[in-house]
Amino acid sequence: MKVTLPTQVLLDAVGHGAAVAASKSPKPVLECIALRADATTGLALEATDLDVGIRIHLAEADVQADGAMVVPGARLLSVIREVDEESVTLAEEDGSLTITTGQSFFRIRSEEAEGFVDLPTFPDEGGATLPGEMLRRMIRRTVFATAKEAGRYALHGVLFHMDGTSLELVATDGRRLARAAQGLDEAAGRDMRVIVGPKGLSLLDRVMGAELGDVSVALEERQVLFQVGGTLVVSRLIDGTFPAYEDVIPPVSKTGFQVPVHELASALRRASLLTTRDAQSVQFDIASERLTIRSRAPEVGEARVDVSVAYEGPDCQLGFNPGFIAEALKVMDGESEVRFEFTDGKSPGRLSDSEDYVYVVMPIALE
Known about the structure:
By secondary structure, the protein is of the alpha+beta class. It has three domains: 2-115, DNA Polymerase III, Chain A, domain 2, CATH 3.10.150.10; 128-245, DNA Polymerase III, subunit A, domain 2 (DNA Polymerase III, Chain A, domain 2); 249-361, DNA Polymerase III, Chain A, domain 2 (Roll), CATH 3.10.150. Helices cover 17% and strands 40% of the residues. It has helices at 7-20, 73-81, 132-140, 198-207, 261-271, 322-330; strands at residues 2-6, 32-38, 42-48, 52-58, 62-65, 67-72, 87-93, 96-100, 105-109, 128-131, 158-162, 166-172, 176-183, 192-196, 214-219, 223-228, 231-236, 256-260, 282-287, 290-297, 301-308, 316-320, 337-341, 349-354, 357-361. The strands form four sheets. Strands 6-2-3-4-17-16-15-10 form an eight-stranded antiparallel β-sheet. A hairpin with a 3-residue loop joins strand 15 (214-219) and strand 16 (223-228). It is elongated. The relative contact order is 0.11.
């Protein structure tokens, strides 16, 4: 194998691959990136941790000799990061990968290429096509709400539901829920209802880059495949039944307040400064045209922040985990207004900044 290509192109690809490769694994090959050079198609870079995989075709590569090598991803990334020259040459020499630039030379020991897991290819038929910008927005507005701790396995993923005319992404950890929905052109493709792991969706978000085109989606043997230009992202599906989330989302209510997203985020951030791990809650005191956010931790102190809001109704007190609300505000349009609806201090709050997004958060009992 011998190939020359722009350093920045290689760095971007290796960065994506290293993010997938397992940092520590009983199988050293899972910590590696596979490089496959072909004079016809260019250089392909692959990585997988068995749950998520990525294949990136680099058409910019000038392949002088075909071949394949498997090398540790973190080690390769650390070398390419330090290359200052505009181009770099990769070659196989005595079972190792050599990296040559105008002023530097590196040699990285390789693993056996035969032990690397083969990734699937995107099927010629049976896929669907989605607008990349829309899909990225929906991923960012839901993936953060997946469960992090051990528990019901289905809650560790995002429901990816497409019926040909609409796309819906839903995530919940049992204490909050995020749902994003968008209408689709009927030409978008097949019906699909699967649970996708957050790592795969976050990787897809990362590889989309600044220029967002269409994303092709297909199912293949308990995996979902996303094709973005010359990049394939593969994610193993999560088994289990996603909870009946429709019953959790409160109906639209007339009781609630409106406030610019950035103002509520700023006030919540300031009030949260005096919370602790053991006192992770804030109190919302809602009155006519005013919201007061309070926090108190005996060993730290207390905070009170007032915000002007559009509200006409009875006074009410609500308690919430500030982190759960802050995470939702981060993915909303900072210049838009968020509608915060509630029934009473024992019922979930309902937040929305548009018709296509709703976020539900369970309350915390006030002392």
